[in-house]
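Hi W., the pyridoxal-5'-phosphate complex you wanted:
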Amino acid sequence: MISNQRDKFDMPDDVAYLNCAYMSPLMHSVVAAMGEGIVSKTRPWTYRPEDFFTPAEEFRTLAARLIHADVEAIAVIPSVSYGIQIAANNLPLSAGGEILLIEDQFPSNVYAWREKAKACGGHINTIPRPENGNWTEAVLQAMSVRTEILALPATHWVDGGFLDLEKIGKAGRDVGAALVLDLTQSLGAMPFDVRAVAPDFMISACYKWLMGPYSLGMIYIAPRWQSGVPLEHTWMGRAGSEDFSRLVDYQDRFQPGARRFDMGEKSNPAQLKGASAALSQLLDWGVENISETLGARNSIVADRARGMGLSVVSDGLRSPHYLGIGFPSGMPEGLPEILAVENIFVSVRGDAVRVTPHLYNTDADIERLFDVLQKLMA
Ligand SMILES: Cc1ncc(COP(=O)(O)O)c(C=O)c1O
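Structure:
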């Protein structure tokens, strides 16, 4: 278990921020690293050509370590929608072929697939929310020889519903389907190992459980797709771009590994240094430890919610770091606003209140949430 880490954040005592799934706060160390990045552009005469490359390589290295991947397989992207589009552009889909999604999936992992299906004469099969809450079973049952692409998360962003990606990955390979993952709501809070899951593409934004800045993300690209087509043809993605005096010796060859997929103007030192500082801290804490610590807190919250007659996805079917509390007799009107007046911050997604604490939360934060809930439901 990890002890409370609130002192690493700028979080007043009277704020109960239970909304990491919306956006994590930046740690002091991340803000300092971002500041360093910003300041470096106040003196461009000290900014060397290699400074366009090294912060990205540091970020790539840490991202790879987080998911047990080869550093060559990571590219720097601005958003999940960008990463999903890379996957959609490079994966084949035959006429009549099927793309499998789950109901109410986050839109960044939906729209590109709708366009892909339209363009190729394929179709989308959206798996309805299973009554027993078991998404893994539902996905395994929905798979068939027609399934060509599985585009999934590990954690349902609405209520934390869990998908066992090792099992799904294996079953997908058995039917010859490609696996594309959006792990924005789990990476950094739940262990993930590319060697065990073997996805074709894995994408995550940095601003939630990776505790980094907005407008930056990572994509893992399996070796078999690394010679594919990038979304943009960047000058830095081409071989020899480190030599600024020779950039108009136009090159057909790309930088090695997945670097060709890096976004244009990836070299934003504030973004990259901030994200790397956050990844270093996560690696220091250890993702297993983070998961266990958040899981223990959420189990207590879940038990208390159930004790009040509220509904929560049961522990085995829920990602440990993530909780959606349902109100079988209806959510009290204006609940998020009432909580916000008390400086308690959660999200409402669908019919559930999403409670997603992190290592900065204290027992007192949870007490304050339940004090308000109990008063409202009395
Ligand atoms: C599951 C999931 N994926 C992706 C995103 C963000 O997507 P994008 O980076 O395309 O804005 C969110 C934001 O809430 C999310 O919950």
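The chain has two domains: 6-18+286-377, 30-284.

W.
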